[in-house]
Amino acid sequence: MFQNLREAIEKQLGGLCHPTRRLGGETAAGSGDDSALFAEVKALYAAGCTVTDIVRKLGLKNRRRVDKWIRLEMLPSRNVMAPKLCTPVFYQDHLKRRWAEGVTKCKWLFSEIKGLGYTGSFSHLARLLSSWRRQNKDVSIPAALVPPETKPTVPMSATGPAISPLVAAALCINRARC
After folding, report:
1. Is residue 10 a contact partner of residue 165, using CB atoms and an 8 Å limit?
2. Whole-angstrom Cα distance, residue 176 to residue 103?
3. CA triplet 176, 12, 20: central angle to 5 degrees?
4. Nearest-angstrom CA–CA distance, 94 and 112
5. Which terminus, N or C, of the chain has the lesser number of Cβ atoms within 10 Å?
6. Running DSSP on this structure, what letter comes out for residue 88?
7. What is the pLDDT averaged over residues 104-112?
């Protein structure tokens, strides 16, 4: 029993199992977004494929979406929910203005938008700002200002160092036996 559990955990963490399911319960077959999938459905239908064939070829879970899409001329736009007080995007105008003024410390920006009514967490704001920092890294830094690396760095996840699927499985099994 534990052997099967260990193997299942290893496969899942090692990326050896079936393709990841997208929202809506359908497999990520080739393309990553609905507009490309819509184009594939329309092309296959125009080529004379039946709905059942299209569902099978694209690896979709059910045929309702295909039935609907073959009747449409173009893919309708998705409804986008308005940002709420608990999301940093609600304060994006303020944050962008302060960022342009040179205020890039997450702690300072967090306390500012808290005063404006932000009810979300620090980590959500940090995630938004990290994407802004990555965009700003395109600006080249003079070589004299870049410190030399003394030792190789180990990639860290949000909870600590990355571990192998084998170690993760062993940790789960040991916890299960307790």
Report:
1. yes
2. 48
3. 140
4. 9
5. C
6. G
7. 91
- Report the distance separating Cα 86 and Cα 118, nearest Å: 6
pTM as predicted: 0.39
CB-neighbour burial class of residue 11 (10 A; exposed 0-12, middle 13-18, buried 19+): middle
Per-residue pLDDT of 10-54, as tens digits, reads: 667 665 444 444 434 444 444 447 888 899 999 999 999 999 999
Rounded to the nearest 5 percent, the helix, strand and coil shares of the chain are 55, 5, 45
Q: Is the CB of residue 176 less than 8 Å from the CB of residue 3?
A: no
Q: Tell me whether residue 87 is exposed, middle or buried, using C-beta atoms within 10 angstroms of its C-beta: 0 to 12, 13 to 18, 19 or more.
A: middle
CA dihedral 22, 28, 33, 35 (to 10 degrees): -120
Residue recorded with tokens 């003394």: 150
